[in-house]
Amino acid sequence: MKARVHIMLKNGVLDPQGEAVRHALGTLGFDGVHGVRQGKVIELDLADGTTEATVKDMCEKLLANTVIESYTIELA
């Protein structure tokens, strides 16, 4: 079983990496980009029978800083 966790900074949290990407895109001539939010994706290869609740627990305890980040889980 595989799980994919998408982690993004919450709205209102300053994203300096996203701002650097937005600026660099403007420098390269891509003037229509008004904002960039950068996040991360974590792919987990899990034992069969692992529940979404277990993956959520992993996120809450280690994978995401829930004070400033939100996350979504995809199971496949």
UniProtKB/TrEMBL annotation:
Its EC number is 6.3.5.3. Belongs to the PurS family. InterPro entries: PurS, PurS-like_sf. GO terms for biological process: 'de novo' IMP biosynthetic process. Part of the FGAM synthase complex composed of 1 PurL, 1 PurQ and 2 PurS subunits. It is found in: Cytoplasm. The gene is purS. It catalyses: N(2)-formyl-N(1)-(5-phospho-beta-D-ribosyl)glycinamide + L-glutamine + ATP + H2O = 2-formamido-N(1)-(5-O-phospho-beta-D-ribosyl)acetamidine + L-glutamate + ADP + phosphate + H(+). Gene3D superfamilies: Phosphoribosylformylglycinamidine synthase subunit PurS (3.30.1280.10). One of its GO terms (cellular component) is cytoplasm. This is Phosphoribosylformylglycinamidine synthase subunit PurS. It comes from the Bacteria. Part of the phosphoribosylformylglycinamidine synthase complex involved in the purines biosynthetic pathway. Catalyzes the ATP-dependent conversion of formylglycinamide ribonucleotide (FGAR) and glutamine to yield formylglycinamidine ribonucleotide (FGAM) and glutamate. The FGAM synthase complex is composed of three subunits. PurQ produces an ammonia molecule by converting glutamine to glutamate. PurL transfers the ammonia molecule to FGAR to form FGAM in an ATP-dependent manner. One of its GO terms (molecular function) is ATP binding. It is an enzyme of class 6 (ligase). Pathway: Purine metabolism; IMP biosynthesis via de novo pathway; 5-amino-1-(5-phospho-D-ribosyl)imidazole from N(2)-formyl-N(1)-(5-phospho-D-ribosyl)glycinamide: step 1/2. It comes from Litoreibacter janthinus. Keywords: ATP-binding, Cytoplasm, Ligase, Nucleotide-binding, Purine biosynthesis.
